[in-house]
Amino acid sequence: VVVPLRYAAPEILLSAGLSNYSEKSDVYSMGILMWEACSQGQLPYGSIDDDNEVRRLKIKGEILSQPENCDEKLWNIIVQCWHQQPDIRPTFKMLKESLLELHPRSIISSNSIKNKSAENETTLIKLDLTTHNIDDDKVQHVADILQGNTTLRELNLEKNRIGLKGARQIARALRNNQTLIELNISDNQIGDEGTQYLAEALCQNEVKQHNIILLINNLICQEQNKLIDRLRQLAPKQAAYLSNTTRINQVLKILHICNNTITDRGAMHLSATLKHNNILTTLNLGHNQIGDTGVQHITEALIKNQTLTTLNLEHNQISETGAQHIAEALIKNRVTRF
User: Fold this and answer.
1) What is the pLDDT of residues 31-72, one digit of tens each?
2) Full-prediction pTM beyond 0.85?
3) Domain presence at residue 32
4) Which residues cross the membrane (predicted)?
5) Calpha distance 302→329 (Å, rounded)
6) Do residues 144 and 228 both lie within one domain?
7) pLDDT by residue (tens digit) across 84-119?
8) Domain with 93 in it
9) Which residues, 6+ apart, have CB-to-CB distance to 131 below 8 Å?
10) Do 263 and 288 contact (CB within 8 A), yes or no?
11) Which of 11, 91, 113, 139 is placed for a possible disulfide with 20 were both Cys, Cβ 3.0 to 4.6 Å?
């Protein structure tokens, strides 16, 4: 019998056959999967190459450390799944109930972010978090809501302190959100790399497999598929990381990313998106550091793009050469207005 050692319960590692497999051993493995999802696809016990050492630690009762983005309530649930005594672990029914209790009761909960009631969360259409001192750590709360909400149409994150890490979290949430129409992330600090994350969330041409899927494919198929299905049912937010294809956002029409220190490199990433995106109608890139090369990338993309109607490039670093690129684009593209 091939045993997925890093995912298996201690009692499985102590037996030679299938006699110790049970619902509770599956729950233990579910805990490992939830840890892996919260740690964004890291290999369990990844710092240890020797499987025998991993086996020894698991049998001894040592557990994985808490991921950075895993809050205390979810972490306590995961740890319960790893109890050395199988009878003390929760059943899947109990696990489901515990996970459902994690459904957010407030839109944002943080010392420096105003607490907004979630009584109308199912009908929330617009969320304005302008000037809320939101940094890369606090924006995770926003990303969680964005990923799970099915009614939000407008999200304003203008004038905060969101950087590269926060942009990545927002972009990841955008891949799973198919209702947001307008996103304003102007006056932050996302830079070129953060712009790249957002651009790729709006246009992805290749299918990517996450490490977690590549690992799972080497496990016992029937048993592992059952666990994945259960995870999707019990914790859909965490299960988003298990998708074997990288989703894209197909509804966002208005994107404001003014004043984010975006240069020609960020413009290049956006141009790649504009060549294939047929949803976005308004792109605001004012008050950045885009020069003639960046303008050239964007205007070349506009030859193919026939849906973008408004493009703001004011207060960048555009010379007469860049202006010429814009003029030529206007001849070939009768839709976009600068």
Assistant:
1) 999 999 888 888 899 889 898 999 999 999 999 999 887 888
2) no
3) yes
4) none
5) 7
6) no
7) 999 889 999 888 888 887 754 333 444 334 344 344
8) 10-102+210-235
9) 158, 159, 160
10) yes
11) 11
